[in-house]
Amino acid sequence: MHPYRATSLVEPRRPRDYRPLFRALYAVALLCVASGVTSLVVLASGCHPNLGPVVNCRVGSYECVRGAPVVCSQSQRWQPVGNRDCAAVGAVCVAPTDGPAHCARAQSDAAAEAPDASDGGAE
Amino acid sequence: MDPKRIEAALQPHYPSTILRPGDALYTVAVGLYSALAAAQPAPMRAVTSVVLSSLETLSQRVSVTIGSVIVLSPAAVADDVTHAATIAHEMTHRAQVERAGIVQAAVDYLGSGELRAQREADASAAGLWVRYVLTGDLPADAPTLGDLYHLDAGDSAMARQIIAAHLATIRAGVVPNLDVCVVLAKWSHAQGDIPADVLARVAVVP
């Protein structure tokens, strides 16, 4: 019999290809190392949170600063409400005594809040 | 409204890759994040636990933004309104990264509970505004952020105050003074097919 004739039609099982798995594990390991190194570099480079100055405001109080509402944090810094001033949304900042500072329509709401309305307020 | 339209409106301003459950890369991203969480050396966990602990539960209910990649959880896409609100929330984080730069944004978020509270409060307000625009529903009181963000009582209270201020702005008929909300308000008025009742809840911005 010819030797090739004896070959089975069913192909022998190929060894499993683990290369994609190894690549994925390598990528994960690389990501972990990179993130760790990045974190250490960030910490060591002197980067610090951009908290703003302590202004000794009354914790929990509201104000309008540069036309936008702010609230006094527990570290007595003004923290912004939003990231634009009220003018960017066609409004003015108001700081009523009986509620939170907010952006209000220039003519109606601000007039209603008149005694405490402020568009430039505390710095 | 189809949440993907909201995404499309924001993409030109804040280019992002948004991954949803079912996307081919979603499983890869969740797998990588889980591996990253598990592989952090102990000293690093104190710094990164805020993000990584949420990443570990990512597959359940938490959506995250890291740089320009936004991974939405199954809970976030459960219905169209939640989906749209979550996109606004996460895109607000994307805008925060854009403003501060990725390194400073990460340092601010991970290094200060106060700044983390501020960032999350603004993002939550953006989500609440989108929900309000789409449904007319606005919570009577500012919600608390919960313990997901590892905030102490003082920072948590400040976050609630910031959300309360945004709610007051919305009740005054004004768009919240947030980049993402401004973009969406302008976009809404430029479309011709937004339902009248929805559009009526979006003030015109200059």
Detailed description of the structure:
The complex is a heterodimer of chains A (123) and B (206). By secondary structure, chain A is of the alpha+beta class. Chain A has helices at residues 19-44, 108-112; strands at 62-65, 68-72, 78-80, 91-94, 102-105. Chain A has two domains: 17-48; 62-116, no CATH class. Chain A has two helices and five strands. Residues 114-123 of chain A have low confidence and may be disordered. Chain B is mostly helical and 206 residues long. Chain B has one domain (3-184). Helices cover 62% and strands 4% of the residues of chain B. In chain B, strands 1-3-2 form a three-stranded mixed β-sheet, sandwiched between helices. In chain B, 46% of the residues are buried. At the A-B interface, helix 1, strand 2 and strand 5 of A face helix 2, helix 3, helix 4, helix 5 and helix 6 of B.
